[in-house]
Amino acid sequence: MSAKIISGTEVAKAIREELKTEVTELKEKHDIVPGLVTILVGEDPASQSYVSAKNKTAHALGIHSEQVTLAADTTEQDLLATVEKYNKDKNIHGILVQLPLPKHINETNILYAIDPDKDVDGFHPVNVGKMVLGEECFLPCTPHGILELLTRSGVETSGAEVVIIGRSNIVGKPIANLMLQKRKGGNATITLCHTRTKDMAAHCKRADIIIAAVGVPKMVTADMVKDGVVVIDVGVNRIGKTAEGKAILAGDVDFDAVKEKASYITPVPGGVGPMTITMLMKNTVQAAKQIAGVK
Ligand code: NAP
């Protein structure tokens, strides 16, 4: 059996079309233009390219976007003042501070300073707490994207044995929480693995769904999975460069071998990646509606 490929590029495209319509309606019926600000500190090339992709996507959907770039030696106080400025800005509904921040800035202090109503990354403890309680909130973008990939592909999560590898605050922990909620895309039985897990292969072998968010190229191999497994590969690992100097990417899963046993699998690139930015846009539109009181 060769797996059905879940194309994040295609699913993201469909969601972006829905968002475009929503943004047009917001403008026509309520005179609201959703606004997003991205704040970047320093000149890290990967962060620069992420921020530029976010602004480009916002623009394409009709979302107003502002890009603030601060010098690498910006003080924590100055960054807090910038966040506060946008907390008060009526034209901005979503604030995204690009991580990681330079070492002299306390990331937690910055994330806690963002108005939870504008926290479109879903990292503020108010939103994290609401997510755990199953209340309406901004869901973190990558886990939200994974849920959309599963549900839109018709993958049944209710009663499924889900093995998640990686327990970071941005992927592993939140996706574990979301998939055990009593709702669509949830009701799964969760096993969360990490570096202290004994016998990773034994856990993976009994999984109906594996979500790999590790950062180790091709760590999940075909002998670790059962026939018919659904595989979501979150990992983005740079494993070399093409002759033209372009990065060669690999996921955390040995795609070519695992796809021969899986029923569904996401590729890298073109799987989870395109979903993350799309869910940021969805959160920005949601923020604009909530702030304006539009249902
Ligand atoms: P992270 O914060 O570095 O966390 C990695 C997790 O994997 C940790 O919990 C770590 O365990 C676990 N781990 C590492 N090596 C392991 C091993 N050999 N065996 C078992 N567990 C191991 O990473 P992250 O931010 O969650 O990102 C994970 C991957 O997803 C990265 O490749 C990243 O680039 C990618 N990513 C992609 C997107 C996207 O939009 N496509 C978004 C976010 C992240 P411990 O906790 O025990 O250290």
Could you please describe the fold and organization of this structure?
With 295 residues, this protein is α/β, with parallel strands linked by helices. It folds into 2 domains: 88 residues, Rossmann fold (3-Layer(aba) Sandwich), CATH 3.40.50.10860; 133 residues, Rossmann fold. The chain has a 6-stranded parallel beta sheet. A 3-stranded parallel beta sheet has the order 3-2-4, with helices on both faces. Helix 1 runs parallel beside helix 10, helix 2 packs across helix 10 and helix 6 packs across helix 7. The structure holds NADP nicotinamide-adenine-dinucleotide phosphate. The site of NADP nicotinamide-adenine-dinucleotide phosphate (NAP) has 24 residues, from helix 10. NADP nicotinamide-adenine-dinucleotide phosphate (NAP) binds next to helix 10.
The beta-strand count equals: 11
| CATH topology value of the largest domain | Rossmann fold
Major beta-sheet overview: 6 strands, parallel
How far from one another are the termini?
A: 45 Å
Helix content: 40-55%
Secondary structure class reads alpha/beta
- The overall number of domains is 2
Chain oligomer state? single chain
Low-confidence stretches: none
Bound molecules: NADP nicotinamide-adenine-dinucleotide phosphate
Any idea what the shape is? globular
**Under the CATH scheme, which class of the largest domain?**
Alpha Beta
Mean pLDDT: 97
Task: Give the radius of gyration.
Answer: 19 Å
Count, helices: 10
Instruction: Report the portion of residues in β strands.
Output: 15-25%
Series of secondary-structure elements, N-terminal to C-terminal: EHEHEHEHHHEHEHEEEEHEH
CATH homologous superfamily assignment of the largest domain: NAD(P)-binding Rossmann-like Domain
GO molecular function: methenyltetrahydrofolate cyclohydrolase activity; methylenetetrahydrofolate dehydrogenase (NADP+) activity
Protein name: Bifunctional protein FolD
Keywords: Amino-acid biosynthesis, Histidine biosynthesis, Hydrolase, Methionine biosynthesis, Multifunctional enzyme, NADP, One-carbon metabolism, Oxidoreductase, Purine biosynthesis
GO biological process, one term: purine nucleotide biosynthetic process
